[in-house]
Amino acid sequence: MQVNLIDLAQEAVSELSTVNDFLRWGVSRFNASDVYLGHGTDNPWDECASLITFVLNLGPQLNADLLTAKLTMTEKKDVVNLIIERIEKKVPAAYLTNIGYFCGLPFYVNEDVLVPRSPIGELITNRFSSLIESEPQRIMDLCTGSGCIAIACAYQFEEATIDALDISPEALTVADENIHRHGVQERVLPIISDVFSGVQGQTYDLIVSNPPYVDAEDLGDMPAEFHHEPEIGLGSGEDGLDITRIILREASSHLNDNGVLIVEVGNSMLQLQAEFPEVPFQWLEFENGGLGVFALTKQDLETHQALFDK
Fold it and tell me: For every residue of the chain, which 3-state class applies, written as one string?
């Protein structure tokens, strides 16, 4: 397989010429391989386009007018090498380019953080419509990773201050880089914290969290691409809910009177519902796809505090 790919690569560099040629060639190679697509793109066209636009410095969108543009020999080689690396190493495109997009914004990413892809982005774009009573002044992004949720919130709520919490110093380094790239360092503060340990006594109008929630079985069965992501950002105990239980137990003490908690638990939603059938989780729906995100008010959390304390 490796020799065949090298032969195909040499042939492509020799015989192909336009952006469209290499886009088609890359998609064909992805379709012929076992790459997994789900880290910012969900189809081979977008995955390949992200690599080509990166090499050619064309920005995130591939302008249709440029599809017939010819590549130089150096550009051809760079594009083909990146496509081959994507296939052979099973590295998500976002890690190859060090760019991930969330809420239409670019973020620096490396293998210290997850590639941004949470459906919570749709909630942010809609300014948490119908979920909050008034514009939040203090927001917590719990398990911030790259800082994408915190920074996207800063764009939507220009008067708010946002604390971006994570247990990983490496992740916070990435988050801090993004905070400065977006020029929101006056309002977004990265904080080292094991769940809520770094913000004792602090309260917020809104807590948003995309914590680790993959259960042990699913973690072991994940495609190779996921193993380039930090395991600390994916797994959370045998059933994927270890951190979520802590969040449910402690969140009410960090919310203001009309505060709201929003948490993504993905496929672990079934286990969460089975464990706490009395809790009125509001499971949110998304126009652009996604599931396993719930909302609870401070009152909901306090009413069922005894269940969470068990």
Answer: CHHHHHHHHHHHHHHCCEHHHHHHHHHHHHHHCCCCCCCCCCCHHHHHHHHHHHHHCCCCCCCHHHCCCECCHHHHHHHHHHHHHHHHHCCCHHHHHCEEEECCEEEECCCCCCCCCCCHHHHHHCCCCCCCCCCCCEEEEECCCCCHHHHHHHHHCCCCEEEEEECCHHHHHHHHHHHHHCCCCCCEEEEECCCCHHHCCCCEEEEEECCCCECHHHHHHCCHHHHHCCHHHCECCCCCCHHHHHHHHHHHHHEEEEEEEEEECHHHHHHHHHHCCCCCCEECCCCCCCCCEEEEEHHHHHHCHHHHHC
Query: pTM here?
Result: 0.93
- CA contacts within 13 A on the Cβ side of 285: 1
Query: Mind listing the pLDDT tens digit for each residue in 162-214?
Result: 999 999 999 999 999 999 999 999 999 999 999 999 999 999 999 999 998 88
Q: Residue 58 in contact with residue 49, Cβ under 8 Å?
A: no
Residue 2 has a pLDDT of: 45
Structure tokens at 37: 């697509």
Q: What is the mean pLDDT of residues 93-115?
A: 96
Look-up of token digits 């904080």 = 191
Asked if pLDDT for residue 13 goes beyond 90, the answer is yes
Cβ atoms of 167 and 192 within 8 Å: the answer is yes
C-alpha dihedral, 33 to 36 to 37 to 39, nearest 10°: -140
